[in-house]
## 1
Amino acid sequence: MLSQSPARLAAWILLSPALLFVAVFFLPPVIALLLESFHVGQTYGLQNYLTFFADDFNREVYWRTLWISLLVTLVSALVCYPAAYAVLKINPRWRGLIIGLIILPLMTSPVARTYTWLVVLGREGIVNKSLVETGLLQEPLRILFTEWAVFIGLLQLMMPLMLLSLVSAMENLPKDVVPAARSLGASEGQVFWRVILPLTREGLVVGGTLVFTGCVTAYVTPALLGGPRVTMLATLLYQKAGVTVDYAAAAVISAVMLLTTLLVNFLLRGRAVKTARAA
Amino acid sequence: MRVWLGWLALVFVLSVGFAQQRTLTVSGFGLNQNLIDKNITRPFEARCNCKIVWEVGNNADRLAKLAARKDNPNVDVALLGDYFAQLAANQGLLERLDTSKLSNLNELYEFAKNPLGGNLAVAFTIYAISIAYRTDKITIPITSWRDLWRPELKGRIALPNITTTQGPPVVWLVNRAFGGTDTDVNPGFERLSALKANVVTYYNQSAQLAGLFAQEEVWAAPVGRFAWGNLLATGKPLAWARPSEGQAGVSNVAVLVKGSRNQELAYQFIDFIISREVQTAQANDLVDSPVNRNVRVAADKAAQLTYGLQQIASLRIVDPDYIVKVRDAWIQRWNREVAR
């Protein structure tokens, strides 16, 4: 006990700048925003939420945002998991270069990356040109300004976050667990499902949360690649706050975004804890 | 004590210094800003010994900002589309103009002098809204708003989104073209809803539309004449349609923001942008069509502008008051029935 308290004190001292920053600059506006979403005239209530969700257009926007974000999270996990494993297997001399290449797109502005997709996915873009010229298609596909354009744009935007989370989770995998499992007679499949996956689950949770949150809140990608036809929560929020000056609806959308990402994080974390215990 | 006096002196010197370098904050569109800086910002700064700070963005964004800063305005002069200025006036954001302080006002066409009534605004340009289209792809010229419904334009047109400045005037004209009236907009919305198959996307900025033309995504689109220079710069063969139902006319106006702390400069600025010299320079660069009667431009430039009383008189001026009244309902209806 005596030896513990100085350590605890040190921990608090080390945490205090970050805590102070969060307490001063982050919590008050978030609390004010959440309160505003319940503000109806002179009192507080659920009326703003009921009004918002009574509108079938708003519900459609919510479901679209949810399924596109979940799909991007799922696909990026499926694609990045083997890729992260491969990154760790390659010669350490090349690993730095590969990690650098993964990070490189994160250093480019999302606006620039999204504009590139406008050119690539367009009617005269490289995708449609090659599909038509090889005879696979008679007519160019309409990709731009559809939900699929938003999906593709977000997937490319968010994948590095998933990959980096997974790579760092796998780096923490103790070197001898796989040989140990094998020596005890585990098959390849058992090694993966019962040893590697549970031990790297934290990386999936962190990556999944980052990707999902990024997708729900992304503005540039749905605005440029989807347009008004593919309205998402972030673009609807902009329209409510910036165009029609409907702050009640804007506050509701912000609160709904926050609660949805917290819920998804909670669910992911819950599953991770459960399976880790089961293992 | 000495140190303390030193600081006091420094504060005094700095405040005097700041007071001499006066700043005028102008809220503007941002389109062709480099030309606006050449024709307006630099000449005005040289004349007033002050500095102009521009706050740029589309009408809707800037109006929302003005409303948000109502009690502590940072903008002195705002340049807005006429019905956005009307919205601002309705929210009590504008100061009535003392027109005796505008020496150039009498040179303007009559409609430009007091477009919102009550001396709330002065128009500095007017533009037509019609259809720009590719003459190589669309060989039968577009002569009616109804031509946008041609089956061969499937997946080939863009419409201005309802939240843009051109959005509501286009809905208004289309509604008229299909037999609607100001009190019955069902014909317009029904036809626009049926136009979905032809629409690639609903654009939010005219700069975005130039990109869509440049990348061969779009062959025809309703747009304001102010964007014509940028559309021609794409190098595509384009024509400006003259529909039988007419072109809409929308003016851009200058307003004085209520609570502005630089009113004298603000008046000088507004007077400057309606002067013959500025209006001539802006017209020659195809930035803004002139509303000053004394502006003369060469025939080749005039052909690219909304120029002269005869042309202006042929426009169907959209009543700002009407648009303001119906806009919110139209945005809701557009979201549900058209852009979906």
## 2
Amino acid sequence: MTATIERGSATASVNPPADTVKTAKPGRKGGFLGSSNGKKAVMAITGAVMVLFLIGHMAGNLKSFAGAESFNAYAAFLRTMGEPILPHRVLLTVVEVALVVAVALHMWSAISLARRASKARPVKYAARRKSRANGYAVHTMRYGGVIIVLFVIYHLLDLTFGAANPAGGGATPYDRLVEGFAPSRWWVTLFYVLALVMVGLHLRHGLWSAFQTLGLASSRSYRPLKAVAAGLSALLVIGFLVVPVAVAIGVIK
Amino acid sequence: MSTGYTEGEPIRDTKAPEGPIEDRWEKRKFSAKLVNPANKRKLHVIVVGTGLAGGSAAATLGELGYNVTSFCYQDTPRRAHSIAAQGGINAAKNYRGDGDSIYRLFYDTVKGGDFRARESNVYRLAQVSVNIIDQAVAQGVPFAREYGGLLDTRSFGGAQVSRTFYARGQTGQQLLLGAYQALERQIAAGTVKMHTRHEMLDLIVSDGRARGVIVRDMVTGEIERHVADAVVLASGGYGNVFFLSTNAKGCNTTAIWRAHRRGAMFANPCYTQIHPTCIPVSGDHQSKLTLMSESLRNDGRVWVPLKAGDTRPASAIPEEERDYYLERIYPAFGNLVPRDIASRAAKNVCDEGRGVGPGGLGVYLDFADAIRRLGREAVEKKYGNLFEMYERITGEDPYAQPMRIYPAVHYTMGGLWVDYDLQSTIPGLFVIGEANFSDHGANRLGASALMQGLSDGYFVLPTTIGDYLANGPYGEVDEDDVTEAEAEVRQKIEKLLTNNGTRTADSYHRELGRIMWEYCGMERTEESLRKALERIPELREEFWQNVKVSGEADELNQALERAGRVGDFFDLAELMCIDALHRTESCGGHFRAESQDADGEALRDDENFSYVAAWEYGEQGPILHKEDLDYEYVKMSQRSYK
Amino acid sequence: MSMNLTLKVWRQKGPKDKGRMVNYRVEDVSPDMSFLEMLDVLNERLILEGDDPIAFDHDCREGICGMCGMVINGVAHGEQVATTTCQLHMRHFEDNAVITIEPWRAAPFPVVKDLVVDRSAFDRIIQAGGFISVPAGSAPDAHSVPVKKVDADAAFDAATCIGCGACVAACPNGSASLFTAAKITHLSLLPQGQPERDSRAVAMVEQMDAEGFGGCTNTGECTAVCPKGIPLDTIAQMNHDYLRAAK
Ligand SMILES: Cc1cc2nc3c(=O)[nH]c(=O)nc-3n(C[C@H](O)[C@H](O)[C@H](O)COP(=O)(O)OP(=O)(O)OC[C@H]3O[C@@H](n4cnc5c(N)ncnc54)[C@H](O)[C@@H]3O)c2cc1C
Ligand code: HEM
Ligand code: HEM
Ligand code: SF4
Ligand code: F3S
Ligand code: FES
């Protein structure tokens, strides 16, 4: 047996693990929301709220196939929901506020968990890590989420406020829809497709993951849960996409 | 050549209470002085080792309110070598109603130990065994259970009743984690102060009492002194003197050897247990041997080819050309004969040239019948992880072809001499677990070491040490005694680091191991032992002149750690050979070729050797003190498993 | 048959030193050697040349103590499934392979030297509540509480965790969830573990956070490298117990 040695040939530039020298620090214990598990639960619950919204939203969007009237009526209905018990637009506003809160909390926990994670892993491996588990979707969660948020901002400017829509803010929702995805604006459609793929991936992992986070999963339910997650995210992606695609190819006009 | 020894005063009193054997432990518990709860905090106990013995002792002493400091060389107490025990733990619960009882466990242990263990101790062990299972279950140890929800048991080598409790093939792990968790609980409560990655390098003896230890912080290299009112050694066995053994790599003799040097007697050092079912050596690079749990012998059948030099693969050897030698020679026990017998039988067939595998050092352990009888699934359920382990190491599939096994050093029955209270010959120094010599005589039965370690740690020591501590606190320690011990430790480290020789400590260790295996292993003769006693001092001399240790003293230095341990192994090896040479009888794990019956079985010489050999350290060679063994309850008989 | 290898090994003198990768050429490696035996051989060489041997943790060398552990070619404990580093054999490598060897990387596991890291954070997580409180001698008869076999088996599966830390090393978040969850699950599946179940879950999760481990985002890398195959649903169990207790 022989062994030859090349001394000191550094092959990877690695950050010095500078301040990782640590003695047991008396834990700063931050209660439920301060704990990683609490944050995760917030993420799962807010995620679930958003998923419910998306299902409703998708169903509503499909009304566009029934024609301008039906779709506009649906848009109007959204605003008159709950009347006359509740004043105009109150219920919708409640939903909107709930959504904003959900998005905010979801992002807050995502960001604080990401920061915690990067503190926990300050030094990267020199050898490329090979992912050995759970597929691709899981690694898109963080940047995927960012893309989704950017999309939603654009989307609101586009179809809700009309600011980024050729039909403008005063047009009916149906017109904004038809004009927005007009064949000439194919790049908008493309952007939607991309964003929706991200949404699909996010939910493909996020849906079963939420069950896991809430302690409702077990090794027996992983397969069915993952299948439902895949099915539901595919359904959402397709359900959402048929509308802009139909507009873009002129089925809806 | 130092084969010489002198004989000192016999040991007359082991402090075991008189009276009927069933009442002795009760009696002792009652007579032991109690410590006022308010004083316990002021009494400081050091526990070296966090295996089943040390972990359970430290946890229990902490729970009782003593001020405990605990040490281990691993990075956490949970990794002590006890973690590796696979097979199970005995207890006289008689949950099966198959005729087991405390008395029977006592009887089996005395007989299994070839009448070289103390009756009083063994009886107590059998009594306490029952409480161990209760304690472990309450701690959440997930023992195997039956569908009715009750605990499952199995039978184990040397016993005809089913009294072995187990947790798949990881009994030691689960029991140790139970003790570890109890220990961590005390650490959190502040009653135990834990020092991991600390190695004990010497014992502080002051005013005739054990008062502390010198340890090295293995990360910073700092030499620390810790003083206390009593010291408990639970540092495990010394099987690694053979280099290759089933013990963890770090197992060492340093703690007990240093205590021996400071006055604690070392009893029966030559009693080593060779385990029959280990995976054979695959080459010179071999760093340790892996045990396959003995439970495999419940369903596996041991055989070798009938003809010497038969190199056909196992599958090509027809049934009638196989020799199921254990079943043939020992029809009553068959494949379940005690370890020493199974080991020697394997050696004998290999010596006849009928061994299998590389180098002819192996015998088959065949599961074909079991798979046929029970189905592959049942076999997989019972032994799955062991089969996997085998395949991982050898690259062979034991479902398709028989395993190859060979004996390997496994357990050391010898250790520091202790009395009934587990106190050594140095007042205030208690020794528990495999580190002491107490309960197994010349041979330990399977699944009894875990029992002894936990019995010592949870139940016996916490009571008996109280009797000693009740007279404490023992006051200031003489500074000179501490300084002297510390200086010796520093000198040794300095010597190793500045030696600048040409061979590594490992290479010396390997050579020492070969000498021990060859000349003081499964079979010993006067000639072989004399040869060993010639070679060992020479090699030790060379070691101290020529060993090379790189690195510094004040850092994590694994080369230094090893070299220090090897140094102590040399001294111990010599004492083992002297002990083996002086004991001209065969008994249990000690087989002297000169002393065998017509069938080649171990032949005891009760007339001359029915004593414990307790060795005192002497500059001019060891001094032998004999402790006579009397058997009032179990009639001495020649062991027979035929 | 023997093989020649190039090793790229992380060398770091001490906790405060800057480390670097160093290349070693090792020749004549037998395929029957374990990975650690291969390193032993290199180390003996290094000692004779007056160099520091590569420090690595190990003890049992049979996959049970949990002491060994290094990241081999980017995978904790190496490519082989359900295998600790000490059980990994050289027959699984190609001749002339280049093998990268690094320590566990996680802030709560600071490097002590070379491949040795400090995993005492795990002990403190156990201290926080990973036990059942029973003073010695106070236990009732073992058969006084029967336990359903399925529960006992599942508890055992979780209890086989060896505390090696590979889960942390592999987790992109540096989370100790699998380790912590294994202990919580083991104890909460048993009747004996019920009285302290709630407080245990909260205390252990909080300690895990306090040690600086990341949160779990269910990536599942941990269970994939875990030498004992601790299943992912232990984490669901932990989450469940924590939420139940925090309510
Ligand atoms: C592979 C294997 C399988 C076994 N299977 C069984 C079985 O099925 N049933 C059974 O009953 N028995 C079995 N045994 C035997 C049994 O495991 C041991 O005898 C027993 O666990 C010893 O426990 P212990 O507490 O005395 O010592 P150990 O568990 O060896 O603990 C020793 C402790 O001392 C510490 N230590 C040692 N030296 C020093 C030092 N110098 N300074 C500081 N600390 C030190 C170590 O860190 C460790 O914490 C098996 C043994 C082996 C090797
Ligand atoms: C608006 C659309 C969004 C929906 C419907 C959604 C949904 C979900 C769901 C259901 C989960 C699973 C929760 C769990 O595992 O416990 C999840 C996780 C996550 N989401 Fe979102 N999310 C959305 C937007 C975002 C945004 C904008 C971000 C980024 C800032 C983001 C980042 C994450 C991250 C990092 C996770 C963690 C992955 C995990 O827990 O496994 N999400 N999301
Ligand atoms: C490609 C498919 C989609 C189409 C055609 C579509 C269409 C619309 C339309 C027309 C509106 C305006 C409704 C109104 O003002 O009455 C709207 C609002 C909205 N959409 Fe979409 N949408 C799509 C995808 C998405 C996705 C993927 C998300 C989220 C991730 C999303 C989030 C929202 C939000 C938050 C609102 C505002 C709701 C409110 O004001 O209450 N949409 N969408
Ligand atoms: S969960 Fe698995 S990987 Fe993590 S410490 Fe336990 S055994 Fe190691
Ligand atoms: S890899 Fe990490 S993210 Fe969770 S599932 Fe395992 S702890
Ligand atoms: S050395 Fe014990 S698990 Fe690898």
